[in-house]
Amino acid sequence: MSKQTYSVCFCWRRRFKLALAEAPLEIKTLFEEYSENEIMTPSHLKRFLVEVQKQEKATEEEAQAIIDSFRHFHRRGVGLNLESFFKYLFSDDNPPLLPSHGVHHDMTLPLSHYFIYTGHNSYLTGNQLSSECSDVPIINALKRGVRVIELDIWPNAAKDNINVLHGNTLTPPVELIRCLRSIKEYAFVASEYPVVITLEDHLTTDLQAKVAEMVTNTFGDILFTPNTESVKEFPSPDSLKRRIIISTKPPKEYLGAKEKDKGNDSQHEKGKEDGKASGEDEAWGKEVPSLRGGTIEDYKDNNVDEEDLNDEDESDESVKLAHNEAPEYRRLIAIHAGKPKGGLEECLKVDPDKVRRLSLSEQQLEKAAINHGKQIVRFTQRNILRVYPKGTRIDSSNYNPLIGWMHGAQMVAFNMQGYGRSLWLMHGMFRANGGCGYVKKPDFLLQTGPDNEVFDPKAKLPVKTTLKVTVYMGEGWYYDFKHTHFDQYSPPDFYTRVGIAGVPSDTVMKKTKAIEDNWLPTWNETFEFPLSVPELALLRIEVHEYDMSEKDDFGGQTCLPIRELRSGIRAIPLNSQKGEKYPSVKLLMRFEFIN
């Protein structure tokens, strides 16, 4: 026990006791139950792992290995005492997800059967209007495991080379060749599964030919090129390991696209105005938009007309301008994109002889989901749907990814360079399957019933399971933050928010009480979360520091895929706002699934 002093004024100081971390009462009770003479032997520990931690395959050898690794916390080498047992439970050796699982989903199915970690405008370092274009955010995304990189390609000023930039904005460009070389160098650092480069093309035919030459020379044998232009089924991630895939619309004439984009300048201006109102982010980011009523049902016009679908991101002029295409460029395209004319019904038609990629903005998807939810699910069973942020998100914020995932959208494209709660959900989803960037979609999104029925995202489903969460305590802030970071005059007052991000009926947030003036808060609070679609649910965990006079401070966060969550008492490492793991900050929690 030591003391910490805070200066209140020149002549007055406040002193607070700093206690050592002590096992919560329930941990002490469990230790008594699974030990003898205050020692937990390998057989006792094995029984604890099987019965409490639900590790049915645990062995005495594994239990002995745990005891050996914590031998320095106790004198007698025959087992764990209470202190070493508590240290084990609160250590990195007891994570909520099992790292040894690695990639464990079936990776031999078509690409359309997976959620794919997808970036939007991957080259931007900050906002959508004026931030620098660079290969650095591309490298950072690939290091995190992102598998889809988006590049907007434009002619340079001399019209003899290709730049990457956000068109009709003030973003300083970066050369395409630099981005391609960085992709080659870092593509498979975090994952050996394929990287898809989606190109938004604004080039003349001669520059398209130059892109084809650049791409071919840069990637060589690792570039995947299909034997035929149209395929009946996408290849599998397993068959495309360590390969680069190009996805774009069939080539279009640059001048034609440029004339069309002039009409979108007013959209960018509107984005500037709307962006002023979007700068009110809390210290830890805005709350994730609700799917219950704040997005979908707010649309009075329930129809998505053809004009809505012909936006700047995906307008398809390939038929009109086909004679201008560069054939060597077209041959590179492994995943063809574009929007057929004729409105939403045509867009969502499933061609038994051809698969393709369709792109919709978050708003288009929300509107389409009102009356065409099941059609979208059916489309995504064979084809790829990419969802991208609306144009007014000039601050590079993001939307609720569940709107895409619950409809089977594989490529839910996010701005990866910022931070906020929506991005934390994206990080959480792709912690699954060993962090390889591909997560197999739940079977219900891929199955067709006897009457050709598919999953209805609007259907009210019964509760499948209930997740019981106990928040015991937290530690590590004293080591990772300055002692006046949270409060100038006293230790912090921490509380934890815990909840579910999932389908609307599962989504909820709850919180513990705040523990005053304590670097080692102990809450011992339990919450229950009924889950109707646990396969899509994410467990959200945030710690905040209560501040009476100002907005509460951020103290850490994480988001975990519930379908891979380990039962039992676990140590939960927390991350910064940008998703970087803190060295010491963690929570001790218990997870129980009640059927």
So, CATH architecture of the largest domain?
Answer: Alpha-Beta Barrel
Task: Determine the CATH superfamily of the largest domain.
Answer: Phosphatidylinositol (PI) phosphodiesterase
State the low-pLDDT regions, or none.
253-284, 293-307, 314-323
Overall helicity: 10-25%
Output the CATH class name of the largest domain.
Alpha Beta
How many domain units?
3
Number of helices: 16
Q: Using only CA atoms, what is the Rg?
A: 26 Å
Largest sheet: 6 strands, mixed
| E-strand count | 21
Cα shape: globular
Describe this protein with a few key phrases.
Immunoglobulin-like, 595 residues, 3 domains, 24% helix, phosphatidylinositol-4,5-bisphosphate phospholipase C activity, C2_domain_sf, 6-stranded mixed beta sheet, alpha/beta, Recoverin, domain 1, PLipase_C_PInositol-sp_X_dom, globular, 5-stranded mixed beta sheet
Write the layout of secondary structure elements.
Blueprint: E1 2-9, E2 12-18, H1 25-33, H2 42-51, H3 60-69, H4 82-89, E3 114-119, H5 136-144, E4 148-155, E5 162-164, E6 174-175, H6 176-186, E7 195-201, H7 205-219, E8 244-248, H8 254-262, H9 265-277, H10 306-309, H11 327-330, E9 333-336, H12 344-347, E10 357-361, H13 362-382, E11 384-388, H14 402-405, E12 411-414, H15 421-429, E13 438-440, E14 465-475, H16 477-480, E15 494-501, E16 508-511, E17 522-531, E18 538-545, E19 553-561, E20 568-575, E21 581-594
Parallel strand pairs: 3-12, 4-7, 7-8, 8-9, 10-11, 11-12
Antiparallel strand pairs: 1-2, 3-13, 4-5, 5-6, 14-17, 14-21, 15-16, 15-18, 18-19, 20-21
Helix pairs in contact: 2-3, 5-6, 6-7
